[in-house]
Specification:
The chain is mostly helical. It has ten helices and no strands. α3 runs antiparallel to α7.
Amino acid sequence: RASGGRAMITYHEGYFGISPDLLFRLRGSVVPKSLIWALPAMASGMGLFFYWGGVDNEASNSVSQAWTGYSFILGFLIVYRMQVSYNRFWEACSLTNEMRGEWIDAYCSLCSFCNKSDAKHEEVLAFKGLLMRLFSMMHQGAIAKLCLMEVEEVPIIDPTGIEPDYLEFVMHHPEKMEILVSWIEQAIVAAAQDDVIVVAPPILSRAFHELSRGMVNFNSVMKIRNYALPFPIVQMIQCLMIFHACVTPIISSLIMYNWRWAGMLAFSSVFSLWCINYIAMEIEQPFGDHYNNLPVIQMQHEFNKGLLLQTDRLLWRGA
């Protein structure tokens, strides 16, 4: 099992679409698990061919038709699961990036709205520093809540300046996200009242809207984390897959004219379906503990970098 903190697997398909490094890489591959089903099926198909004593043309035609119909139904279910899993994975990618974009833009806007006068310089720095830490903690809370496993190494920007009692309260509270959103909104309102933020209220409301849209995206992606594929679908697929792996060697030994092709048919049929099924299982839950899940720790690092960029003096040209 992989940790949620690992980056996604990077690869290069090669100039002609074939890469030895890609073909023989085992980390994150579904091939080893699929071979556990395919190799015994191949051996059984070859052994049963010799047991039956060769092909029976009359029996093979009817058996072949029944097996083809069964394989079609199973293939339809597997492809359906693959499509649903990919849609879930891509939606999780989109929503997490939209959440990050909304919050980063809200923070950048608030920094731009700050008072540029020297008299308010210290208050502006304190306000920006507080917001930076609160936004970092909020994104960290979102990442931690999305992950199915315990993730303790999600980094946040040094929370120095936040009162220890408040910090202890929020870091261990089950509703961490709601608390931090409330604190950010309170900080914005207080800054506007103290003239730390000097911008027209309709323009300032943009920051509240972006903060709100980020929370909407977070709650939307939580449905992928909380709700798996319906149980009857998964149960039926598992039953049909096991039955298929057990029956395919028998079918291949009856319909093929030599033992080599009997083994090859059993291997290819079982191997391909289990590969697709395992791929669907890998990407169905993007926030699990597989190598092919989303790199949530990397997302947090990138978010922190975006916040820290606002502290660069060269960013504020003419300020």
